[in-house]
Amino acid sequence: MTWTLPEQRPGREAPPDLLERRALVGGGDDHQVVADGVTAEDTDVGGVACVVCSPASPARTLLYFHGGGYRLGTARGWCTFGSKLAAASAARVVLVDYSLAPEHPFPAALRDAITVYDAVYADGSAVYAGGDSAGGGLAAALAVACLQRGVAVPKGLVLISPWLDLTQTAATFESRAETDLLFSKESADTAADAYLQGHDPRDPLASPQFADVAGFPPTQLFAGGAETLLDDSLEFAARVARAGGAVELVVAPDQQHVYPYLAPDSDAGRAAYAAIVRFLDAG
Question: Which of 54, 151, 159, 198 has the most neighbouring CB atoms within 10 Å?
Answer without folding.
Answer: 159
